[in-house]
Amino acid sequence: MPAVIPLLVFWLGPLGYIFYLSFTDWDFMSPDKLFVGWDNYRYLLGNPEFYQALKVTGLFGLGSVIPIMVGGLLLALLMNSKLRTSGIYRAFIFSPWVTPTVAVSIVWSWIFQPDVGYANHVLSWFGVAGIGWLQDSNWALIAVLIVTLWKSVGWAMIFYLVALRNLPSDLLEAASIDGANAWSKFRHITLPLISPTTFFLAVILTIQSLQAYDQINVMTQGGPAGSTRTLLYLYYQSAFEAFNVGEASSVAVVIILICVLLSGCSFLIGRKMVHYQ
Amino acid sequence: MLRYVMLTIISLMMAFPFYWMVMSGFKTNDEIFRFPPTFWPETFLWSNYVDAWHAAPFARYILNSIGVGAAISLLQIINSSMMAYALTHMRFRLKGLFTGVVLLGYMIPSTAVYLPSYLVLSKLQLLDSYTGLILSNCVSVFSIFLIRQAFMQISHELVEAGQLDGASHFRILWTIITPLARSTFAVMVLITFIEQYNNYFWPMLITKSPDLQLVSAGLRSFFVEGGAYGLKWPQIMAASAFTIAPLLILFLFTQKTIMQSVNMSAGVNKN
Fold first, then answer.
1. What pLDDT, in 10s, does the model give residues B90-141?
2. CA A253 – CA A256 distance, rounded (Å)
3. ipTM entry
4. Which residues of A touch B109 (CB under 8 A)?
5. pLDDT, tens only, A148-189
6. Among A48, A157, A235, A245, which residue is least crowded by beta carbons within 10 Å?
7. If contacts are CB pairs under 8 Å, which of residues 43-72 in chain B contact chain A?
8. Is residue B21 part of a domain?
9. pTM for the structure as a whole
10. Which backbone phi and psi does A2 adopt, to 5 degrees?
11. Which CATH number goes with the domain that contains B224?
12. pLDDT at residue B231 greater than cutoff 50
């Protein structure tokens, strides 16, 4: 079982190690790690940057997961009937998911240029004044979210396409005969039957949103004024830029706790709400 | 009809950044800084692509990424199938515990433990080496789940028949089970390769020397350093274009398999 060793060395081991480190004040350099108890956590709870990052993480989560799921479902519905060319559309919409986030984020950061970018050009068609996008703390997170949505919506769409294709057609036909209109069919038959997919996407996308790093690193580096600094980004900055291992570890522990909490919730919700056939 | 129109518009919007990237790569610096932006380059400056290609060792970055991606995919095939085999067709005492550990790995993002993993690698003297990068990626929880799913569908009688013939577990795994799960392996390899080619955060932390950089990190340093930022946008766009190209080509040829993967990963989660 050679797989177990790397799993232990790079997974379980570090997981335990990080809890330990979060109780020290290590800085990468000094030979000894001083045990400081709950100090890092106390510091974190008194630090406005932490709450800001917590807020950004929440906003990023909601702002990415919900639009990606809704968008993916709408696209799948749009594509579900037997279109002859749907393969081409599917390829187009899915392709961003395959490409490196760093490369596409660079392209997008040009599109979001305030003076010459295409985003403001499009706005000018509608007579809207240009936006500072990545330089404006009110808009930077939205810009990052747009890229995230662009990248993942095709991925979610494929999941929904598979789910829609597996719907039992006799049930939908029976409903049509009973005089149900499109909306009530969707609301009472399709939506409950695809709930396992919805549930799966919600869980996976939430975990992915907690891991988002590449696009933030390229486009904003957490700025301006911390408006795009998620917990993960705060963790990265305090560990590898400020070299505060203890502090960074306590942020990581918070991220891990959030994951465990969310997984627990999803487990409970999954039991109650999801309709498996 | 309306569907076609809407889908066409959406597809064009999705493809626009790619189009923009390729076209901007042909423009002059003056043209790229013009507002309103021009949709079609006035003259096609192929030299931007040539310059960008030579301005940083992109050929090397791309080969690095392909090599590392391939090595990791290969190791993951071996490791995941052994693990999956143990979890599905062997009986041993700590089976429940192992399944639990794998499940835990599925819940907690690996990014959260980058710091201690980094320290582990530095203790092992494996920082700034491909050995470290490849070893730390040679097991993936997702792959284990995916392969496990495929192995569970293979009847246990086949394994028993093999055992009756006196075949070892290794033989059973590689000659009986693995060939039956070929399509799942194809999916796994593709997904792993794409993921590793695109990987940025972890390789960036580990490999510092320019020669070892993978393509994402290399592109990023070209973007930020060397005075390129804000000055040589056509070259940056050209560089992004050839960073993306290998994957778009791969996607073109393996579309079906990649999209099929989605079906499979949804299945992974049901158990």
1. 777 777 777 777 777 777 788 888 888 888 888 888 888 888 888 888 888 8
2. 5
3. 0.86
4. 207, 210-211, 255, 259
5. 999 999 999 988 988 888 888 888 888 888 887 888 888 888
6. A48
7. none
8. no
9. 0.89
10. -70, -20
11. 1.10.3720.10
12. yes
Note whether A122 contacts B: Cβ–Cβ < 8 A: no
How many domains does chain B divide into?
A: 1
A134 interfacial to chain B (CB closer than 8 Å): no
User: At A225, is the pLDDT very low, low, confident or very high (cuts 50, 70, 90)?
Assistant: confident
Instruction: Render pLDDT for B181-220 as a digit per residue (tens, 0 to 9).
Output: 888 888 889 989 999 999 999 999 888 888 888 999 989 8
Tell me if B170 is assigned to some domain. Answer: yes
* Domains of chain A (ranges, CATH numbers): 50-276 (1.10.3720.10)
Contact criterion met (CB < 8 Å) for A95 and B20? no
Tell me whether residue B40 is in a domain: no
β-partners of residue A24 are A35
Q: Which structure tokens are listed for B33?
A: 């800084």
Domain range holding B87?
A: 45-266
Q: DSSP letter at A74? A: H
**HEC letters along chain B:** CHHHHHHHHHHHHHHHHHHHHHHHCCCCHHHHCCCCCCCCCCCCCHHHHHHHHHHCCHHHHHHHHHHHHHHHHHHHHHHHHHHHHHHHHCCCCCHHHHHHHHHHHHHCCHHHHHHHHHHHHHHCCCCCCHHHHHHHCCCCHHHHHHHHHHHHCCCHHHHHHHHHCCCCHHHHHHHHHHHHCHHHHHHHHHHHHHHHHHCCHHHHHHCCCHHHCCHHHHHHHHHHCCCCCCCCHHHHHHHHHHHHHHHHHHHHHHHHHHHHHHHHHHHHHCC
CA atoms B234, B240, B243, B245: torsion sign: negative
